[in-house]
Amino acid sequence: MKNRKSYYSLLLALVLCLCLTACGGSGDTIDDGGEDYSGNEVNTPDTFEGMVKDSELATNYAMYWGTWVDADNNSELIVAMADSGDEVRFDLYQDGSIEASGFVQFSQEYSGDYFYNEFDGWAHHCWLADDGTLQIEGFGGFEKDASAGDMDASDTGDADADVSALAGMWYLDGDVNAASWIEFDGSGIWTLYERSAEGDWSEVDYGTLRANGDSQYEAVSDAYEGVSYDAYLADDNAMYWGGENDYYQRT
Question: Model pTM greater than 0.85?
Fold first, then answer.
């Protein structure tokens, strides 16, 4: 009887081993057909060579406009819309000597903005950090130069620049039923309206408009201290507004 119990115990242990082998473990290899899925995510390189200028990707990139300096104030970066109005240009000076110059453009392939240096043919990934600094791979970090002040008409050689060109009603995406619209009078007073979820219009900001050069403006808020919006007049009835380059159309 004792021998029979031992036999049954051995048989049960053998069955359990076979069951565990059939179930497999965490170390099993799964056949994926040899496919490599590691490259599905977009790789945004720090730099790459040979960016091609594409007019279809042209925008005002207003968030980069202005004069920027590095932490040691040895480098000065000037970013502005070109006189032609079809590209944003930059010049980088080191101790008074120009070190890089080119254009700013979004790369669809790499899903990022780049400063393309025409001196050496390399594009440098750029972005605005949470602290407001402009970061450019290979060039470093830059802060807005408060001492430079805002650009005015005299800085760009356009002494006749005024704000009357924007007078009228401007609707987001040209839709009179959109969630936002802006009203400018001929003297540069502007008011920003937004539609609530219930469909009611309300005034959310207002202020005065200043010309920053050819087709470039700064809308300074009188309601909120330190707030302003960049505006670029693309044509007679098309305008890009704010850091997100929202498109407004005059109707």
Answer: no
